[in-house]
Amino acid sequence: MEMMTTAFASPSTYVQGDGLLKDAAKYIAPFGKQGLLLTDDVVWQLIGEQFYGDLTAAGLTIERVAFNGESSPEEIERIKTIGEQSKAAFVIALGGGKTNDTTKAVGDVLHVPVVIVPTLASNDSPCTRLSVIYSESGEFLHYIFYDKNPDLVLVDTSVIAGAPVRFLIDGMADALSTNVEAQTVARAREVTLLPLQTQQTAAGLALAEKCEDLLFKYGTQAVTAASSHVVSPALTHIVEANILLSGVGAESSGLAAAHSFQNGLTALSGDVHKLSHGQKVSYGTLVNLVLEGASDKRFEKYLKFELALGLPTTLADLKLADASDEDLMKVATLTVQEGETIHNMGFPVTAAAVFEAIKAVDAYSRKFQGLD
């Protein structure tokens, strides 16, 4: 019997706290005296300027670089040049997913430590060792995989609580898929997202399970707190679930159908793309459950959770009420293209099977809600 090789990856250090940004310099200073701070103009005005002031007051020399909004090869090259000229010893991202992805890429080419300071808990990009790269006009190009995760992730829960609550809900939707996909990969004994073609550690799977556990225990309280822009113990649990446990859990446990479905939706144009990553993945989680043959009880556990958060569980919610069978077949076909993580299900998955699952989710949710 062939011996299995397993692997686990995570950020070197993860720090989370209420009002953490005031003291951020003490965590960053070990990397050197001077660095770049990448942030867009909106975040700069909200909290960036204050953050910059706190870092420089603590003795760091920081050059602020205005992020142009797209994690493109051109933007990475532009910022790399600035970093070389200023002899940056580290790079800091302050913002959302594309800011994070660009900063990781710049840190990689400059060979300097990467510090990620997320302003939202809307996805799990802060902790992972990959970037999603887009063209300057916003079309998906490819992923870049790195040989390490970010060196430091600093999460200020008061900043997360200050953002519109829909971003927290998006992150919860993305996090909800983590354990569903991780358990699928575990059953199939398939490989993880780490670019080493390795299988799950017990540690990676345990984080995915803990992620789900926290979502079901504290989700409602956390959403209520975030709606009022206050930090509560429940919110701190959900922020950790969304950013740390989901990111590390997904990377070290692997993905399956939920994320492939999200990618498959790019076969269509239109209003579906006004939805967030998390919203699309939430429907994909239900598709994953149908494909794996989940019981009524198991399926409804996730369906109820998504309905309570106002996440898409019908084709109408996905803005696809008028999509033809031909359109849905296009989505299904792209979902099962070569290289997609849906091939981690442990059995051959065809476009026809995905098409049936997409329709089955819609029908079950409508029946469950009494919409038929």
TrEMBL record:
Domain Alcohol dehydrogenase iron-type/glycerol dehydrogenase GldA, by residue range, is 11-157
GO molecular function of the protein, one example?
Answer: metal ion binding
Q: Which Pfam families match?
A: Fe-ADH (PF00465)
Q: List cofactor names only.
A: Zn(2+)
Q: What general EC class does the enzyme of this chain belong to?
A: oxidoreductase
Q: What is its EC number?
A: 1.1.1.6
Q: Which Gene Ontology terms of cellular component type are present?
A: cytosol
Which residues are listed for glycerol binding in this entry?
124, 174, 259, 277
* Catalysed reaction equations from the record: glycerol + NAD(+) = dihydroxyacetone + NADH + H(+)
Q: In which pathway does it act?
A: Polyol metabolism; glycerol fermentation; glycerone phosphate from glycerol (oxidative route): step 1/2
Keywords associated with the record: Metal-binding, NAD, Oxidoreductase, Zinc
Query: Where NAD(+) is bound, by residue?
Result: 40, 97-101, 119-122, 128, 130, 134
Q: Which PANTHER family match?
A: GLYCEROL DEHYDROGENASE (PTHR43616), GLYCEROL DEHYDROGENASE 1 (PTHR43616:SF5)
- Membership in a protein family: Belongs to the iron-containing alcohol dehydrogenase family.
What NCBIfam families does the record point to? PRK09423.1 (NF006941)
Q: What is this protein called?
A: Glycerol dehydrogenase
Q: Which organism is it from?
A: Secundilactobacillus similis DSM 23365 = JCM 2765
